Amino acid sequence: MEEIKSYLPFTRNVFQRLISYKANAIIFMFGDFLMLAVTYYLWKAIYGSTTEAVLNGFTFNEMIIYIFISFLTSIMISVDISHDISREVKDGSIAINLVRPINYEKRMLFQGLGNVLYNFIIIFIIAFSVTTFLFYKFFGYISIFRVIIYFISIGLGIFINFYYSYIFGLISFKITNMWGLSQIMQAIVNLLSGTLIPIAFFPKWAQTITNFLPFSSAIYTPSMIYLGKINGISILLALGLQLFWGVVLMIIAKKMWKSLIKTLTILGG
Fold first, then answer.
1. Where are the domains of the chain?
2. How do residues 63-81 score in pLDDT, each as one tens digit?
3. What is the three-class DSSP state of 92?
4. Contacts of 160 (CB under 8 A, 6+ apart)
5. Separation between Cα atoms, residue 3 and residue 22, nearest integer Å
6. Which UniProt keywords apply (predicted)?
7. How far, CA to CA in Å, does 155 sit from each of 44, 175, 217, 218, 265?
8. Tens of pLDDT along 217-261?
9. 8, 58, 105, 230: which has the fewest C-beta neighbours closer than 10 Å?
């Protein structure tokens, strides 16, 4: 607990920094809402252009819930600290941070949690309540058990996304300008996590591959659990796969840190 207390100021500082720029927050929220609206009308047009009531296992109402819950899940697991690491490498401030008596990996984790806390309070609470209300309106029930498992799955998703972002951040030790690589990273996440298109709409061979990758574990798995598309023993298998990727990515990150820190060139300062 004492160790956690020493890292909590990093979470608090990130949260305070984000909440202090209200105009910035409003602009980003407007952009997210616009993207959500475009996605909704796109799927509405798709379902409206066919006589089929169910497409790849999704009714239109289920697709609406999926759009909302996958969007909220992607916001909740957002712990993109690769930009912070890259910035510190470019301006040389990483030199000061490395000589401080704190663990760099843990510091980045708690900074990421500051972003999670901000998204949870500012966006998630209200939007999740609306989504749950819509679920009840469409289907006439709410499964408390699935909601609890959903939050457990989100916790594992945060862990996966943090180490994925952390690994890319460590690459900045070798590649100074990370802008292009970060764009590729985000594009891969959006496509393979099921954020843009549910993985159920992929070809069968692509589903098999994508369902095993960590990207789907971060967003698609929690969303499908909430929607009730993953049930019974499949829930345990899905959570187990999330835990597996969290551990694997953590090991990769630690190996990369030990290797790259030896040859880090400090810029700026």
1. 2-263
2. 999 999 999 999 999 887 8
3. coil
4. 77, 214, 217, 218, 242, 245, 246, 249
5. 32
6. Membrane, Transmembrane, Transmembrane helix
7. 31, 30, 11, 9, 34
8. 999 999 999 999 998 899 999 999 999 999 999 999 999 988 887
9. 8
